Amino acid sequence: MSPNGQTQGKNIKAPDNIYTVVLAVATCAVVAVAVFVVFMCYKQYGTIFKMP
Amino acid sequence: MSTLTKVLIVLLTVSSIFLCGTVATYVGSANNYKELYQTANSQLGKIKRDIDLKNAEVNEVKSSTEQAKAALQAKIGSLESELITVKGQLDQAENRRDQLLNDVDQLTSKLDALAVTNDKWHVMLQNAQTELTKVNADLTKERSQNKEVTTAILEKMAIIAQLEDQTKELNKEKEQLQSKLVLVLRQFGKTVEKPAPVTTATMMAPAVADKAQPRLPGPSVEPVGTQVKEIGLKGVVTQVDLKNSLAEISIGAADGVKEKMKFYATRGDSFICEILILDVYAERAVGFLERVQTPPKSGDSISTSIGS
Questions:
Q1: In chain B, how many H helices and how many E strands?
Q2: B275 in helix, strand or coil?
Q3: Does B32 touch chain A (CB under 8 A)?
């Protein structure tokens, strides 16, 4: 996963940073879904964790 | 970074994205159970209120139904009693109907007999009507004759009334003349005697009078003419007052002496004087001396006529 490996190998290899981006995207998606779930819970039941 | 790590990163990312999509889809499409609960709860309350209202209506209807039931039961009781009475009346009416039917049968037989009798009476009635028409014609003729007779009677009654008036006037004149005649004759010692009537229509006996003929009003038969008779009073002179030419005689009003009556005084066969009566008492009278031939004295006889 080092930049030296990309320049020395024949096959095209993605840089390591792209996996970081992928993880960031996945994290953002998880966070967005969590925010959405919280919003919907508050909107419909008026609370987040308690039973109405 | 190893390949396994990279693979795990990619798988983790893909699975997380898939899982996030699934969760977002589920949450976005999930039902709002709180709102559903509130809606259902409000509908439940409304339904409960409707149930209460319906129960109240049912109770009202039940109470009214019970009242109506009680009224109907009372009415049924009265109707049953009326039914009993009506049944009794119906029985009586049926008995009465049977009696009336028997009466109708009897009356029908009598009616047949009456019809026969009615035919006979009808024939007799026609005969009587023909006779009645004849009698009416005769009655009309008699009425016309009766009217003529009535008019004649009225005319004669008018004449009779005139004659009665004349008779009354003549009677008055006669009474006046009789009173004058009495005064004149009294001076000569005479009076008027009423003769008995020859006939008196009013004195007829009822049995003799004809009742079939009505009596018409007319003048009663009065005695016609007068007869003169001597009074025939006699007495004596009781006292003499020659100064005043007065004398008292022994007879008075009880014997028929009246004022202005003239007496003749005699002594034996000789005429003495006349005495004109002035005052009359019960059993004596006083008179004035006239044509004195000889002075009278007590005991001289007096009379209303000379020579009697």
A1: 2, 8
A2: strand
A3: yes
- Interface check for A9 against chain B (CB to CB < 8 A): the answer is no
Q: What whole-number distance in Å separates Cα of residue B237 and Cα of residue B264?
A: 11
Note whether A26 contacts B34, CB cutoff 8 Å.
no
Chain A residue with minimal CA distance to B27?
A: A37
CA distance B123 to B102: 32
Test mutation, A13, A17, A33, chain B, max B CBs within 10 A: A33
End-to-end CA distance of chain A: 51
The β-bridge relationship of strands B262-267 and B301-303 is antiparallel
Nearest to B13 among A1, A23, A52 (CB): A23
- Interchain pair B23, A44: CB under 8 A: no
Q: What is the pLDDT along chain B (308 residues), one digit of tens a residue?
A: 788 998 999 999 999 999 999 999 999 998 888 889 999 999 999 999 999 999 999 999 999 999 999 999 999 999 999 999 999 999 999 999 999 999 999 999 999 999 999 999 999 999 999 999 999 999 999 999 999 999 999 999 999 999 999 999 999 999 999 888 888 877 776 776 655 555 544 444 444 444 444 444 444 544 455 566 667 888 999 999 988 889 999 999 988 888 888 899 998 888 899 999 999 999 999 999 988 888 898 899 999 877 65
Residues in chain A, total: 52
B76: Cα separation from own chain's centroid: 58
Q: Does A30 touch chain B (CB under 8 A)?
A: yes
Overall pTM > 0.95: no
B23 interfacial to chain A (CB closer than 8 Å): yes
d(C-alpha B279, C-alpha B262), whole Å? 12
3-class DSSP state of B237: strand
ipTM over 0.85: no
Longest dimension (CA), chain A: 62
